[in-house]
Structures are given as C-alpha cells and as structure tokens.
Amino acid sequence: MGYTKNPKNIEAMKKNKTPQLKSEEKVDLTLDKSVSKNLEKFKAFLDESSDAVFREFKLGVQGIPCAAVYIDGLVDKLVINDQILKPMMYQIAILENTLQKPIEPDKAFEYVKMHVLAVGEIKEADTLDEAFLFVMSGEVGIMIEGFEKILIASARGWPQRSIQEPPSEIVIRGPREGFTETLRANTALLRRKIRDPNFVIKTIQVGRRGKTDVAYSYIKGIANPELVEEVERRLNQIDVDIFLDSSQIEHHIQDVYMTIFPQIEVSERPDRTAASLAEGRVAILMDNSPYALIVPATFYQFFQSSEDYYERWPLASVIRILRWIGAFLASLTPGLYVAIVSFHPGFIPTSLAISIAATRATVPFPAFLEALLMELTFELLREAGARLPRAIGQTIGIVGGLIIGDAAVRAGITSPIMVIVVAITAIASFIIPSYNAALGIRILRFPFIILAAVFGLYGVILGFIILNVHLVTMKSYGVSFMTPQAPIRYQDWKDFLIRLPSQMAMRRPTSSYPIDIDRRDQDPVKEEA
Amino acid sequence: MKERTDRLSNLQITFLISSTIIGVTVLVLPRTATELVKSGGFIATFVTGILMAIVLVIEALLAKRFPGNTIVEFSKDVIGFIPAKVLGVIFFFHFISVSSTILRIFCDAIKVLLLEATPLEVLIITFLFAVVYLCLNGISSIAKICEYFEPLVIGTMFLVIILSFRNFNIEELLPAFRQDVFEWISAVPSLTISYLGIEVLLFAAPYVHNSDSVVKYGLLGILPSIIVYTLFVAVTVGTAGIEPVARSLYPVIQLARYISFPGGFAERFDIFFMIFWILGAYTTLTSYLYMASVSISRVLGLRNFKPFILLIVPFLYIVALIPQNLKEISTFSQYSSYLGLAVLALVVILYVLAIVLKKGEMRK
Fold first, then answer.
1. E strand or H helix at A125
2. pLDDT tens by residue, A453-501
3. Is residue B205 part of a domain?
4. What is the ipTM of this complex?
5. From A40, A194, A290, B156, which residue has the greatest number of CB atoms within 10 Å?
6. Per-residue pLDDT tens for B156-171?
7. Which residue of chain A is at minimal alpha-carbon distance from B128?
8. Backbone phi, then psi, for B358, in 5-degree steps?
C-alpha cells in the first residue's frame, strides 16, 4: 500500500522545486502528533482536489487545535455541522463551564469520542493510509493536537437513486424493489428478507485505486464452507485498479472465459438473491452496481425466473417448458430451416415443401445467404433499438420489423417463410429470463446456420453435440454446469424442467452442496439415519 | 469447492455401458440377424444379449477383485508381465478395429441417407473432430455426455418401435421357435459386435465411487440394449417380412420410413430417427477412442492418455477407409465381431485364472 508510485512525476517535481510536500514524493504514512503536520500530509495529496475540505478549529475553552477533513459531496453537511462541529466548538465549552472542569489536553481524544461527538459510527485510524480510505468513503477525519491517531466519524450521505423496479427482471406478481448503486441500501434489502443472525455479510475492498467495497454474503449453516472459502480466495486475488460494475468482477472470478455462456448468475432482485442464499449459494454485491453476482450457477438457472416461485406450480411449469422451447427455437430454427430447405426437403410434408419452394422460386439467393442476411438485419435492428430512448426504439422496431420485412418480400430478396423464421427466432430469444444467457443463446444461431449450410442436418447435430460437450465440461465454482442433467441428480428434478409444488420440494437443490439439505427445522431423513 | 472429477456415480456407469453398446450397429443388426437365422433372428439377438450380460457380470466381478486398476494393469498380477502386455495390445487392436468399423458404417450411412454429395473423407474427419473434442476431456465428461444423450437415444428408439406396432404382423415371426438351438448359437459371433461396448466397464470400474453395486448397475446398463435390439429385430421382420429385411441395407431406417409422423408435422420419420442415432453413434465412438488410448497408454506404462488420442486418430481414419465397398464393410465388421468375441473370451479366461490362482481381493 502506498501513494508513492509514479517516478516520472517525482523528477518533474524536482525540476519545479515546489516547497510544498507533493503526493508523488515519498510521504511518511505514519501520523504525527501535530495537527498542522498531519494536515500537511493530507494536503500533499488532496490540495489540488477541489472537493476536499479542510476545516481547522479549536476545541472547547482551552482552544486545543483540531481539524476536520472530509470530501464534499460524500458527506451529509447537516451531520457535520450539527453533530460534529457544533458540539466540538461550542457545546463542549458550555459543558466545561457548567461542570467547572476543563478537559485535560492529554485525555481530549477519549473525551471527544465518548462525550462530544453525537454520531452513531465512530472509528479510529492509526495511519494515513487507513484515514484516507475512510475519508474517501465519505467519513469525516477529525485530528486533535497531541494525538497520533485520527478520529473517524461517519457522516456518509450522497445523492442516490431511489429503489425502483428492476428493469431487467420484471415480474407481474412479487416484490417490486430492485437493488440500487449503494451497497448499504442493497445489504439492507437483503437483511430485511433474512433476519437470521447467521446471515453473514462480509466486506472487502477490491481494486488498487478504486478500493470499491465488495460484499459477499451467505447463510452460515447452509452454505458450504468450501464454497465460501473459494469465493474469498478468488475475490482476494483480484488485482486491477478500478472496477466500475460487478460484471467486471464477474470476469475476474469466473471459471472459464473462453465461452459465450455466463457461469455466474446475475440478479437485480433482492428476492431472487435471498432465495439463492437460502439454497446455500453465495451472493456478491458491489458498491456502485445494482447487480448481485450469485455463485455457483448452473446452466438451467438461467431459465428460471423469480416469478416461477410466486405463480401456481402448474402454470409456472408450463411457462418454464415454454422457455425451453424458446431456447431451442432461438438457437436452432434458422439452422434447421437452412438444412431442410437446402438438403432434406423430404423431411417436411410434401405440400409444405412445395409451398416453400414456390415462395422461394423468385428469391435470387441460396437459403443460407437469405437466412444470414435476414438474421443480420434483425440483429442490427435490435442493437439499434436497444441503445435508443424508448420512444424512438419502438419506432425502429416498427420500421424495421414491418416495413423492411414486407419490402424485402415484395422486392423478392427473401421469402415470406424466412421472415416468419426470423420473427420466431426473435420472439423466442426474448423469452429467456436471463439477459446475459439469452445473448449467448441467440448468437448461437449463426454458427448453426453455417454448419447447416455446409453439412445439412448432420452439421446441425454435430454443432449440437459440440455445444453440449462444451457446456458439460464447464464448471462454476466446482459445480458441473449442466447439473442436474449431467451429472444426473434426480432429487433436484423437482425444480428443473418443471416446478413441482413447494410442499414436494422441501429439500434444497444439491447443486451447491449445502451443508444443511432440508429447508424444514427437522429433517426426517436425518432422524431416520 | 471441488467436485471429485475422477469419480463416477453408479448411474453414470449404467449410462456409460448402455450408450457404449447402443450405437451405430443398431442400423444393420436386423439384417445380420435375419440373414443368419431367418425368422428366429430376434431370439438369436436375445440369446446373444443374455450371453453378453453373463460376460458383463464376469467383467464386473473381475473389476471388483482388482479395484482401482484397468484390466491392462491388473492382468499382470494374474498372468505375468509379458502376457499382460500382449493382452493389452490385443485389447488395443480390438478397440481400433471396432472403432474403425463403426466409424465407417456410421459415415457410410450418413452419406447414403443424409449427404449424398459430401465426400466420405470429410464426414469421417468432421465426426472424428467432434469425438476427439469430448475424448480429450476425460472419462467424467464422457460419462456426463452419455447420461445426457442416452435417454434421448433410447427414447427415440422406443418411439420408433412403438409407432411401428401399427404395421406389425405377428405371422411373419411365427416359425421362429421351431428352429434348432444350435442355429441361434451359431449367430452369436456375428451378432456380438452389436453388444460390444460392455468392455467399457473394465476401464470405468476403477473410477466408480461405490464399487459394491457395479454388478447391479452394469446389468441395468445392458438391459436397454437387449430389449431394444430384440424388439428392433422382431419388429422389422414383423413389419417387412424376412426377405426384404435380409436384403435391405439399413432395415431400421426402412422401418422408420414406414411410420407416418403423428400429426403430419414431418414426413420422414427416418431422418428424425437418424438425428438421435447420430448421438448414439457419437457416445459409442467416443468411449471406444477413450478405451483405445487408455489401453495403449497403460501398455506403455504411462498415466496420461490424451496424447495417444491424437496419435490414434489418423490411424482410425486410414483403417476406416480400407474397405472399398459394402461387401467389404460387412466382412470387416464380421471380423471385428469375431475379434471382439475372442477378447471377451480372454476376459472370461482371465477371471477363471484369477479365481484358480487366488489373485486379487477376495469377496468378504
């Protein structure tokens, strides 16, 4: 740890010969007894920053020199004025006068801590490093003459987004709240759902310069200690300077990076996160990011929505089956279309084959090129619509979908069947609840189109085989990615392809190896054994 | 958190055996059986299956006597160093012959039925590529793929059988039981190739988590193949008659072609069947390539089998291209079948020797 990194700047500094201590020079990171010297050390780093505030003042009747350091914008000014500065400068003097007992300067630090500061959270910092971390996190550093430590009073308060409905995981029935960018608010949302003292939220700082708070939480007694250890190990070995979103952490703690599939579940929803915690998994929250990372994840979890568990089970099961069909259609329809049209027209009923051939008679391209062209157009439209304001995005959708599709058919560039195929793929690809998994599955159709164009159905099957070998060999935190299908775990099938009623699924899924398998208080199986 | 990747569950053993057995040869099995035993083909198939189940039990018992080792390693405790190496080499050649046979039959079928214009060499290379990709990931990944694909494969086969009952005519099979028992037995060597794959137990058993129930789960693994094969032979003959089946190139495809797809969604059920048959062929060939590379690496005393996969593949490619026409493929397949039967006989002899010489762990 140190702030003395950049040698180039030291040379530049020496040339300018500024008298003041500069942050690039070697600064002694220990604290001094003198307030003015400590202040100078702070200023060496922060003097050029306009948001740093240094407030020097005198304590009580005797006028012991003090100073407060904080970052404007990260603190609540009301708290600083009313609970920190006012008591230290003014109210302490009244106290001294009424008690007729001035405070002793060598006990001032303890006295201020115990009697003066009316702030809930008080800490002490012994080094400049430590103090910087606190000040940069939005706390107030208070220096008192004669003490080699700094009093840290919490006065955090900055503009935050209020809790809103998560836009990426909308449910009809179920809680509407979503995570925000503030870690504390997010942990509070989780804590409100799990009031168990065994629910642990541990925080570490990640990023050499960003020093972002990253919290990993789990329920002690459910989560496998080996899993928690592994999460800890992977988080601690991250060495990057700044993180902006939890997705960047995801990239550093995932198992395989040569893949299009996410191996960590991402959620904006506290209820979904809490449900995962209750399954014995570990949730990783990061300050500045509204997305929680949940490990370990299996492929099939990307097809589950939190609403599955709020809806009646037969309906939820039907919806889940719809998602499987959706995933299948989104990745395979164009490939199968190309394969059947160009290699095996006999596979489909003769009347359909004839009508397809009739519509394709005027199309100048082979089916392969036609499919590639239309799918590409669709991807362009989708990407164009995604980044635009909602109102314009819809216009793009209408213009693209209706007008281009219709015009392309009329112009004879493509067949109506192809437009239907593209439309089916498009709709099917949006039925998968997890956005990042859906993206990967959607992209798959391009390799399938190419394989179908070269080898027909055989190529599609070969692609399917290779895709599944890839999925089967992947692991997420030691858990096989295709659990519970490969390896088969029949006890987990109650909540897999379909969801059985909750009364029948009193056991937790075994995929995350929870150490307490039963959701109930008493495990009949354990008692039998 | 580490899953024990080098351990297989009992269920995985079942699926591994079943998907190694069921594969390419199901396509031609009714022809072979009917050619040899006429209407009694299905009984001969069943008898072969029972014999193979007995061999499987012997294999399981043998593997139980020597836990933690493949047959190439533990055979030297029974028959000595040099004979054990020779046995390993015989195993290796057996695996090569079987894998190149099924590779050739598979690619021929694909060429005839799906891709007429594509050169055979391209089909062989693409399929080998996919096989090598899985094989390099080791036995636990192979087992996972087996338990993933096998329900699909067996499910489709049963679907074909069930939907074919509509055209089934029992009279075609009627003279079946009037045949001599010897006639059934004489068909066994040629039908063995369809049941080959039970050797996988000798190579998977060292990784079994709980070796006590290997016999049970092994038998569970061969059960679907006995049922599916017997029914396939019976149903194809019952549907088409003896002569057409014996002369048909791929009787099972013929059978599937008779089926009209329920609801009229797709016209040709045979293509639908082939899609899943490819998955079955894939798992079979992968297991064989795995066993071939493991056996040769153990013969040479090496633990790492992965480099051998890449060394074997060109060899497979060349051997698979040796037969020039369908007749030669048939002959080639017959010889691999005989070699397979010989290898299984060697396993049985090894077991008898192990009992006589009191080698390996005794049963408690």
1. strand A122-125
2. 999 999 999 999 999 999 999 999 989 999 888 888 888 888 888 899 9
3. yes
4. 0.94
5. A290
6. 999 999 988 888 888 8
7. A462
8. 55, 50
